[in-house]
Amino acid sequence: MSAGKSAKAGVATVQLATRIEVSQEQLFRETARRLGTTPADAMRVFVAAFNQHRGFPFDVRLAAEVEPLETEDEATEFASHVSGQLLDAAG
What pLDDT score does 71 carry? Predict the structure, then answer.
């Protein structure tokens, strides 16, 4: 991640950047829009929750019978599929 600093209303801020798959970015933007927020605000909420919980604001664990996906592409496809199912269920 890269960072650039700026001042906003007397509060020091920093800009974070990361790289994600195009399909994940599109789904992220669409999900944020459907929730009535922006990707930037969604990231701010996540960072605040992460800091408040001193880690992920949800359980991060492997089930006893989970087998790892063989490639990053398989993992991305799986994540996109699950995200799509969640959007369908919420819509």
Answer: 87
Inter-residue contact 41 to 31 (CB < 8 Å): no
Residues with pLDDT less than 70, the chain: 1-8, 62, 66
Measured from the Cβ of residue 21, the count of other Cβ atoms closer than 10 Å reads 15
In three-state form (DSSP H/G/I as H, E/B as E, the rest C), the secondary structure along 46-84 is HHHHHHHHCCCCCCCCCCCCCCCCCCHHHHHHHHHHHHH
Q: Return d(Cα 10, Cα 30) in angstroms, integer.
A: 32
DSSP 1: -
